[in-house]
């Protein structure tokens, strides 16, 4: 198959690039904005048609959650309009679209893991545009698979794990929020699931994927430092209101992964197991 991966220089795009070596039967087109501007409707249509694309994996997004509050137009173009353009281009040639989405489509007021049919209620520009992007994708391409994920990190790019490693080595104390609960997701594990979905044939619909288990950002930080052997930095728990941010965060965003596990026949590693693998790679 001919597979287009957009946002190829981001965390997930890079993990897809690494894993593609294990699937040499496909031809890959790894693009970022320099190679393909996904906000250019006609450019997207031409690229997909000319390269006879069979599957599009859209890893591109505007993900700066706080900056999004002041950059709503750009956020809307990348997170809502672009998925619609990719979906239209896919539909025109009979291709499938894998659109990556987020736990921010929920308001975080639940106390049980969110299933795919739970009511959405985003309370940030980022969350609203990502939900609109889901709707654009599903509405314009009959072979759309939405995968919502959360707390993504990897060995590539900037992310929470790398920030906590750096701060843990630079500082002797650190405060981290303990009243926001979710599940970290190693981008390499998500990439593995996407390849599984492509290999089995895309089953359209909305799916949730994160690693197994539950923690707070505070717990996550303690695990990062423990696994990295950082012992000189004292980590203290903070309430959300002690760490003001421009955009509100979901207090509870644990995703129920039953559907994707049953559909793909996969087991998902616990977040600590995957974190250990990532930190070992980071050295």
Task: Give an account of the 3D structure.
The chain is globular. The protein is built from 10 helices and 12 strands. The protein has one domain: Rossmann fold (3-Layer(aba) Sandwich). The protein is 42% helix and 17% strand. The model has no long low-confidence stretch (mean pLDDT 97). Helix 1 (11-20) crosses helix 7 (187-200). It has helices spanning 11-20, 41-50, 65-68, 72-93, 125-140, 160-170, 187-200, 217-228, 258-264, 271-282, and strands at residues 2-6, 27-31, 55-58, 96-102, 144-149, 152-153, 173-177, 181-182, 185-186, 205-208, 215-216, 234-238. With 283 residues, the chain is an alpha/beta fold. Strand 1, helix 1 (11-20) and strand 2 form a beta-alpha-beta unit.
**Second rung of CATH, namely the architecture:** 3-Layer(aba) Sandwich
In round numbers, the mean pLDDT is 97
The beta-strand count equals: 12
Radius of gyration: 18 Å
Helix content: 40-55%
Task: List unreliable stretches of 5+ residues.
Answer: none
What is the name of the CATH class?
Alpha Beta
Total count of domains: 1
CATH topology annotation: Rossmann fold
